[in-house]
Design brief:
heterodimer, A: about 230 residues, mainly alpha, 2 domains, globular, B: about 110 residues, about 75% helix, flat
């Protein structure tokens, strides 16, 4: 019985992950194109996507290397962009902390925005599912997405031609994230947390290394937690 | 032109750094219990980090030279509105994409 739960959870993850190919695909293609334009070989562009597997940080690193920024600035900025992953990791730990260490390592490697967003919402819908069922779901979500992330990076680097900006593909990511988060704004605490976070990030764009994002998120989390503490969920 | 050795150094260092950031809690805390106040904060991670990630992209899109584009703001608003009231992710994405497409093909 447990085994069939795990399998059905895996396939539910696959079904929920597949639409995000449409989001990740253009992003990967774009990274490949920009990497090629910056003078990277196909193998280098692909290595970026396989080893780092974090689009926003990769774009940041590439941008700064192109501007001849010192290497430590490149690394620090790109890692600052990825600081949100620490919060993803912490937020998944109550759900996935019980699985084997190598499986947690696997989750950590595949912990991209889309996989986190889809999985945490599923875990919140069914918090009492076993860690094995939750792990199977996560793997189901990332499995269809990741080959496209790798493959289309290489394809973009090979093609090299610029994608016309008027297609508005840059907006696939914001639309996807807003669509995922909107249904999760189900209590006053969630809505206040999101609102505070958005206001703060827009006011804090002057802070370097994308640290405004981290400060804004922490401010929003403190708001949500305080409202929950005073008035309950 | 970016130097070859720098590219590979950045790839490897960024890979290790990103993995450690992602592994920090999952790997080192595992199933040890976390204090209630921390769990209460973590419940709001998704609804704060992701909106903060996209808000500047909506208001100052790089593809538009960092200038506010009313159609992108409208597309984002439509996505938020439909997503909030229908709880349907695909319908929400569709409405945002529809606004952008209509804006693109209108004279």
């Amino acid at each position: 019985m447990a085994q069939s739960d795990v399998m059905s959870s895996f396939w539910r993850g696959v079904r929920h992950g597949v639409p995000f190919i449409l989001v990740v695909g253009p992003f990967a293609l774009l990274f490949g194109v920009i990497a090629a334009e910056a003078g990277l070989h196909v193998t280098e562009a692909l290595a970026f996507s396989v080893v780092v597997i974090a689009g926003a940080a990769q774009f940041t690193a590439l941008q700064l290397m192109g501007e001849n920024a010192p290497t430590w600035v490149v690394l620090l900025s790109a890692l600052a962009v990825n600081l949100r992953m620490v919060m993803y990791s912490a937020s998944l730990t109550p759900h996935l902390g019980g699985i084997a260490l190598w499986k947690r390592g696997l989750v950590a490697y595949f912990l991209v925005d889309q996989a986190y967003a889809v999985s945490i919402l599923e875990y919140e819908r069914d918090p009492d599912a076993s860690p094995a069922v939750k792990f199977a779901y996560f793997i189901g979500v990332v499995l269809p997405i990741v080959p496209f992330w790798y493959g289309l990076t290489a394809a973009g680097a090979l093609v090299g031609a610029a994608i016309p900006p008027e297609l508005g593909l840059d907006f696939a990511l914001p639309i996807a994230f807003i669509a995922m988060i909107a249904p999760a704004l189900r209590t006053n605490a969630h809505r206040a947390a999101a609102t505070v976070s958005v206001i703060l990030v827009l006011c804090l764009t002057w802070i370097p290394f994308n640290l405004g994002l981290i400060i804004a998120a922490l401010g929003g989390m403190a708001t949500g937690a305080e409202i929950e503490r005073r008035y309950g969920l | 032109m970016i130097e070859q050795t720098e590219i590979w150094f950045v790839i490897v260092a960024l890979g290790i750094g990103s993995f450690l950031l992602r592994f920090l809690f999952l790997g080192f805390i595992g199933d040890r219990p976390m204090p209630p106040w921390l769990l209460r904060h973590l419940r709001y991670t998704a609804v704060t980090v992701l909106p903060a990630l996209v808000a500047p992209l909506v208001v100052w899109p790089a593809a538009n030279g960092g200038e506010t584009d009313p159609m992108r703001v409208l597309a984002a608003a439509a996505t938020l509105f439909i997503g909030f009231w229908t709880k349907n992710v695909i319908a929400a994405m569709g409405s945002g994409a529809a606004v952008l497409l209509i804006a693109h093909y209108l004279p």
